[in-house]
Amino acid sequence: MIKLKTAFASLAVAGTLAAVSTPTLARDTINIVGSSTVYPFATVVAEHFGRDTDFPTPKLESTGSGGGLKLFCAGIGTQHPDITNASRRMKASEFELCQTNGVEEIVEVQIGSDGIVLASSQEAENLNVSLQQLFLALAKEVPNPNGSEELVANPYNNWSDIDASLPNTAIRVMGPPPTSGTRDAFNELALEGGCKTFSWIKAIKDEDKNAYKAICHSVREDGAFVEAGENDNLIVQKLTADHSAYGIFGYSFLEENSGTLQAATVAGFEPTMDNISAGDYPLARSLWFYVKKAHVGVVPGIAEYVAEFASEGAWGDNGYLADVGLIPLDRADRMAAAERAAALETMTGDEL
Amino acid sequence: MTNSTSQAEIVRQSLKRRYRKERRFRAYGITAIALAITALVVLFSDIISKGHTGFLKTTVTLEVTFDPEIMYLEDATDPAQIRNADYLAPLMAALKREFPEVSGRSGERALKGLLNSYSSSEVKDLVVANPAVMGTTQTLTFVASDDVDVFVKHRDDSSYSLKLTEEQQAWTLALMERGVIDTSFNDVFFTHGDSRDPGHAGVLGAIVGSLLTMAVTLLLSFPIGVAAAIYLEEFAPQNRLTDFIEVNINNLAAVPSIIFGLLGLAIFINLFGMPRSVPVVGGLVLMLMTLPTIIISSRAAIKSVPPSIREAAEGIGASKMQVVLHHVLPLAMPGMLTGSIIGMAQALGETAPLLLIGMVAFIVDVPDGFFSSATVLPVQIFLWAGSPELGFIERASAAIMVLLTFLISMNALAIWLRKRLERRW
Q1: Which residue of A has its CA nearest to B146?
Q2: Could you tell me if B416 lies within 8 Å of chain A, comparing CB atoms?
Q3: CA B267 – CA B274 distance, rounded (Å)
Q4: Cβ distance B154 to B391 under 8 Å?
Q5: For testing the chain A interface, which of B161, B295, B384 should be mutated: the one with the most A CBs within 10 Å?
Q6: B305: nearest Cα among B271, B337, B328
């Protein structure tokens, strides 16, 4: 029994040793976390950076914008990430969190925009909708069609029920689930955008913000809107097989499948690079990344990575990011952003 | 008498019905197996039909003249010149020799679309490694661009969206005829880590990551699992406490794997401060997950050793310790190994717990140790399945085939071990 005891004791010791003997290691690889929307762009930059410099290729985790900022703001030290990507601007509350955890100097870089498209197979009849029509088609409760100021369960079955100019086919839209950033953006830009065109609903916002949000952000659950999973490829595949359905996903997937898919015109604008870049296409959001200045010089290559991202060859009009579907900023904005990034200008918190 | 005949009569009459019942029961069984096999065949044929082209790569072979003039590179050892040189120029020159009629900026841009965007950095690497190459002409083979790759392999498949323009398609067909564009075995797929360019993406990084993770899992879970099983089966007193432990080991085996990921995140990363995305943490988490499987199968293996062996050993004066180590353990080992291999195969295919400890990441460099960032095979498949580039559809399926090969060979090894080493009593 004594031998057995020593055997167990040594096993336990071995186990704890394996667990404890790992101090925070000095790191030579840049760690990046954040938005899954920025991920396809940031990975391309990371790979070019790894190929063209002597630094190791940065490691990228796709954690979502909120998850990434939470990890980023957890503190200073190599166990925390150096850079986080976001498909929206940092919130004031997140900036506060960063400050309380000692992440005081943050460099903010806007990299461009991404559009959300409503696409269908080229065999299908293309849509030309306004934001209000999109809201009427997809919201759970809509204003009573008779014009009175009350909400009724969504009565529309066909697009043509909403407006005679729309195709006479059943409303069936596939989109991402609520956990997705694309869905958040779609709710905010498309549904809320259409929702607040009803002035009496907009008036609710001042009285009861939560009630207003519940009206404008609730998607119908009667089968007209299908949650098709986080994987945008799946939606693309379903659209090519099913010619009566429409799908919601990021612009880069439309670009990659431009031979088989077509995109709906929303509020009078087609989702083209020019329209999104100019801010005319309504379903567009800006993309950002945030750098922890305290890590510059500690983890090698951060400043060089930022410089690679902010180079014309990467995010310019003819850069390699445009090839994968990033919509570049205006040249003047781009130049100013690149300058701020190169100087590692930190945020004050007032800009948010 | 009358009573017995009538009974025989009853039996005879019901006989037909009983046979029918039996036939029906068999038919149900056969249907069930047929359904299972059909599902398997559909799954495999879908994966193989989608994935087999992933094992082919499309290449462009060009006569590249390293002309210092067009490359702006007089001295290939001067770092400043190396930085500013044009490495695309010799490739474009070689392509333009194939199509002398192409001219103008837009024509050149279209021609450039046939080349992979990393080809110029490959030229640079070659020049930096071997400056003597300047001024010579070499026959070099490059991976073609994703669009060309998709066109060459899937031009007849309507589910693929071709991005090449008609002009580019005609060029590609002409180059295929001349043998400049060709397909060959995709060695890149087995010698490279992840990449955002499908032509340069490979599973080596994921395979090495899986092996490192599995090594940690095996080294920790096998000794601990076997020791726990031996103690519980041979030494532990039968009381409420051991009953409680046994129930909880069985419970642990049924806990969803994502819970182990949460545990790993809370303990190994947040409490012990271990880095994210490393094989050690992945291995520890999967160790927690496989431990119950190994303990349960090891206990079953120990139980199957007949008591006569123990009694004989004790009869000739062996101590309890000697009985276990010299007799029971060697005889139970095949069963323990089988259980462990099946547990490891399960761990190899696991993705959910690794999501939480950061092993779902874009990692290009092949991991070189237990503390370098890594992903594993199933995670690589997950990442590729979500990528917009069309070339990743077939590569995800090809990676599934690689993963299945590993799983099938592990399970085959388990069966072989059982057949080979198992003793019947």
Answers
A1: A256
A2: no
A3: 9
A4: no
A5: B161
A6: B328
CATH number at residue B398: 1.10.3720.10
Domain A26-114+285-342 identical in fold to domain A115-284: yes
- Cβ atoms of B188 and B56 closer than 8 Å: no
Inter-chain residue contact B275 with A25, CB threshold 8 Å? yes
Is A324 within 8 Å of chain B by CB?
A: yes
User: Which among B155, B160, B151, B91 is positioned nearest to B122, based on CA atoms?
Assistant: B91
Q: Which CATH number applies to A115-284?
A: 3.40.190.10
Q: What is the reported pTM?
A: 0.83
For the stretch B270-320, pLDDT in tens is 899 888 899 999 999 999 999 999 999 999 999 999 999 999 999 999 999
Angle between helix B104-112 and helix B166-178 axes, rounded to 10 deg: 60
Same domain? For B175 and B103 the reply is yes
Tell me if B362 and A232 make a contact (CB, 8 A cut-off): no
Do B99 and B113 share a structural domain? yes
Does the CB of A99 have a partner CB in chain B at under 8 Å?
no
Q: Which domain holds residue B29?
A: 2-52
* Greatest distance between any 2 Cα atoms in chain A: 87
**How do beta strands A173-175 and A246-250 pair?**
parallel
Residues 187-246 of A with CB under 8 A from B: 230-233, 237, 240
Class at the top of the CATH hierarchy for domain A26-114+285-342: alpha beta
Does the ipTM surpass 0.90? no
Same domain, B381 and B242: yes
Q: What is the pLDDT of residues A72-122, one digit of tens each?
A: 999 998 889 999 999 888 989 999 999 999 999 999 999 998 889 999 998
Task: Estimate to the nearest angstrom the gap between the alpha carbon of A204 and the chain centroid.
Answer: 28
Distance CA B237, CA B251 (A): 21
Q: What whole-number distance in Å separates Cα of residue B418 and Cα of residue B326?
A: 20
Q: Are B190 and B44 found together in one domain?
A: no
